[in-house]
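Standup notes
- HV: blocked on the assembly model, inputs below
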Amino acid sequence: MTLPCEMPATGPAAEMVASLQAILPRLTTDRLCLRAPTVTDFAAYADIYLSPRWLHDAPQTRHDAWLDFCEMAAGWLWRGAGILSVELSEDRTLLGFVVLNIEYGDPEMELGWMLTASAEGQGYATEAAKALRNWAADEIGVTQPVSYISHDNNRSAATAEQLGASRDTAAEADLDQLCQVWRHPKAGVH
Amino acid sequence: MTRTLDLPQLETERLILRAPGVADTAPMLGFLASERAEFYGGPMNAYDGWHKFSAYAGQWLLRGYGMFSVALKTTDQCIGMAGPFHPDHFHEPEMSWLLTDAEFEGKGYAAEACLAVLDHLFTSHGWSSVVSYIDRANTASRKLAERLGACHEARAEDVVPNCDSYRHFPAGGGA
């Protein structure tokens, strides 16, 4: 179901969206295009956010997902980095999202990824995260970001490992919450 | 290279209405943690407050409109927010407003900010009307809606519990 808030803006608001989105980076890899998030991408975001594959501390609603999606976009206003939508270059299928974000209380910037169920298992998360990681190092001077990963999220941990990241136990000890901290390598693994 | 996103800025006699900034986090989280946030889903902890405040900011990128931070011209201090936010489960964007602290009440700041935002929505965006859902216990907001010339429409139980809907129109914008 498409809710009113998920319909693209019209009129001057649409022009505002276009002008804001034009400032965001557009990154391409062998198979993928990373581009500005749009409101029509929210349905996929909510599907991922509300799926059992996303491990939340408490039950979540679609409204929580909307606040989260907006929060991921806010980074572009405040830190010059935020969420990008990941699509397949050949047919523009939306595969998921990658994000550079600092959540409340987090000590540093996090590199994250989230894919739709059907896009998993094909190396897309690794390919997209690598592209955003390289962009962050080159364009905003963010090197060696971390990925916060729940102890029971083995898939994401495997992706972090494929990205050349390794566990940062010192950072884990400094963290209030119980999760793994994966530190990404300095030079992008191209 | 830091990318600068240019959001609209409105000016009134005493106020600047600008894009929500990270510097506004402290007053906004203070507001959302207080009893004053009763009609805004609060009081809430800092984590949830951050979630909400940053969502107010991020919606600009996705929708092309959003909540402005309301700052005093003299000090640039954020004293509240005003503007349309569109929660996932609402049929349409809602014009809302808040003042972060009681010390800013009774000075006409909320009315001044809302009139500027409404004029912006009707003039620059060409909106024909915009709704506000107001809790029946929120006397201050109801009075402000009436002062702004909004029409009391109906109960809005299907959207927000205990709320009535008030609709602002261009003609009433300057009332």
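- HV (later): unblocked. Helices of chain A lie at 11-23, 42-50, 62-78, 124-139, 154-162, 169-174. The radius of gyration of chain A is 16 Å.
- Next: hand off to the docking folks.
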